[in-house]
Amino acid sequence: MQSGHHSWGKAFSAFKDRRVVIMFFLGFSAGIPLLLIFSSLSLWLGEAGIERKAVTFFSWAALGYSFKFVWAPLIDELPFPVLTKLLGRRRSWLLVAQIAIACSIMLMAFTDPTQGPDSLVQMAIGAVLLGFSAATQDVVIDAYRIELADVNLQTALAATYNAGYRVGMILAGAGALYFASWYGSDKGNYLYEAWRTTYLIMASAMLVGIVTTLVIREPKQSKPPRPYHSMDYFRLVFVFVMAVTGFVGTFLLLGDALDFGQKLDPFMAFLVEAARLFGSLFAAVLIGYSLVKCGAVNRKMAYETWVEPVADFFSRYGIKSAVLLLLLIGLYRISDIVAGVISNVFYQDLGFTKPEIATAVKTFGVIVTIAGGFAGGLLAERYSVMKILMLGAILSSLTNLIFIGLAHAGHDMVWMYAAVTADNLASGLAGAAFVAFLSSLTNVSFTAVQYAIFSSLMTLIPKVLGGYSGTVVDAVGYPTFFLGTTLLGIPVLFLIVLVDRSLRSRP
Questions:
Q1: Confidence at residue 38, expressed as pLDDT on a 0 to 100 scale
Q2: Which residue range is the domain that position 401 belongs to?
Q3: How far apart, in whole angstroms, are the C-alpha atoms of residue 320 and residue 503?
Q4: Is 124:41 a contact under the CB 8 Å cutoff?
Q5: Among 1, 29, 229, 251, which is least packed, fewest CB within 10 Å?
Q6: Are both 79 and 172 inside the same structural domain?
Q7: How far is 352 from 354, CA to CA, in rounded Å?
Q8: Which of 262, 282, 297 is the last residue of a domain?
């Protein structure tokens, strides 16, 4: 864990490292897919006249981001045929994921959703493949970044990665909307060719990542190859595929069985959907466990792939420190994520127009987030990750108070830009320091798996609580809601202190 102080000159010099520049381009590649599944695709389907209920179903295509830790062990263990010998373990998987992303986007581009149910199914397949491929790319890039340099450079790598990621999101978000409009498609004047061209442009943007992957070097091999045969790997993939099939099949079956949940109040409906999700996960785990017990896969290999990375984390830090770390990971971003879930609705309720929101949040806000990320990386290089973690947690919590002022001010552009500036600056600063912190926790022998677990846990609890934000606002109003999100950040401060003490007391 980085704890020393560096001079400002040394802190700035970290950003001149070639490896830091590499992460900007890989971040750009990682930032493109997400909005092509969410906001841009939603607007495309909305302009095409697809009913709102069907449009929201497409958000499930991004579930891969939340469950990427499930197949991350395969990426850590399995060599990709032929390519691994030519490019190395990380670059081979990265290239495959990037090509798959480009192909998925092109599949969506050549699908007109107005051509009947079959076209919607094809669009859904493309979106699911895009989500899976993009999550795979994230797993590999995270592992590559951690293996590329030691912990002292991780804050700079995280800051430039975040900057590239945000630029990619601007292209896939505001850029995609601009291209579609420029080519002639608008609400009430849908033009499929405009969206097809737009998504083909997005697919071509993935060349940035592909070229970067081909010219960079493979990081130093820190984990010796496992002594297994190709058939062992095939059986491991077979077990994974069967478990995923069980999850999807159970999810669909429970969807029909629990259809009554749609008629309940929001809280009960949430519990029904949660039961559906956990029931499907249980079925997948049961299938995988049964296949392992039956000898469908090498048991030692299965243990090394899925169990050993988790056991290693608890072994290195001990039960007490590991639990504290997991609590901090799960709660660190709770204040800003819970508030951010309803932010766009909040702006609309105050009377801000979509162009005003797009300019302030999607463009100006992203630029401020990039600046915050660089500030966080620079400060963490100058001081220590733990100190900047504390600063980020304090700012992320306190900036919610500005939204209370905006709620009372109403449609006031000055207040809006003040809120967006403070919120995004704090988010960028905290995010850069937190990524460096998570990177320092991983064992390079299990990089992809452990970081995938951390990054999934990071958003799980905040997003679950964020689902109640609309209900809370309806009950207490915006000022009280934002006061509550501010108070949510207080336990995080105590957790940082406890984690810091716990880590200092260990070798």
A1: 72
A2: 303-507
A3: 11
A4: no
A5: 229
A6: yes
A7: 7
A8: 297
Q: What is the pLDDT of residue 269?
A: 61
Between CA 190 and CA 184 the distance in angstroms is: 8
Stated as kind and residue range, the H or E segment containing 296 is none
Q: Are residues 331 and 371 in the same domain?
A: yes
Mean pLDDT of all residues belonging to the chain: 83
Tokens matching residue 309: 């990375």
Contact 398, 304 (CB under 8 A): no
Residue 492 token pair: 């995080």
Nearest to 436 by CA among 76, 161, 25: 161
Q: Is position 1 within any domain?
A: no
186 and 322 in one domain? no
Measured distance CA(219)–CA(88) in Å, rounded: 9
C-beta atoms surrounding 119 within 10 Å = 14
**Dihedral sign computed on CA atoms, order 315, 152, 306, 225:** negative
Whether residue 273 sits in one domain with residue 211: no
Task: Note whether residue 183 is domain-resident.
Answer: yes
Are 18 and 26 spatial neighbours (Cβ–Cβ below 8 Å)? Answer: no
442 and 450 in contact (C-beta within 8 Å)? yes
Q: Are residues 402 and 418 in the same domain?
A: yes
Look up residue 90 and give its two tokens: 């990380």
d(CA 305, CA 364): 43
What pLDDT shows up at residue 27? 95
Record the tokens describing residue 41, joined without a space. Answer: 């695709």
SS3 (DSSP) at 189? strand
CB atoms near residue 95 (< 10 Å): 20
In this structure, is residue 9 part of a structural domain? Answer: no
Domain count, the chain: 3
Residues 329 and 398 in one domain: yes
At residue 3, the pLDDT reads 45
pLDDT beneath 70: ranges in the chain? 1-17, 52-63, 66, 221-228, 230, 255-270, 273-274, 341, 344, 354, 463-464, 466-468, 470, 507
Buried b vs exposed e over 227-253: b needs ≥16 C-beta within 10 Å?
ebeeebbebbeebbebbbebbeebbee
* CATH value at residue 309: 1.20.1250.20
Domain assignment of residue 7, yes or no? no
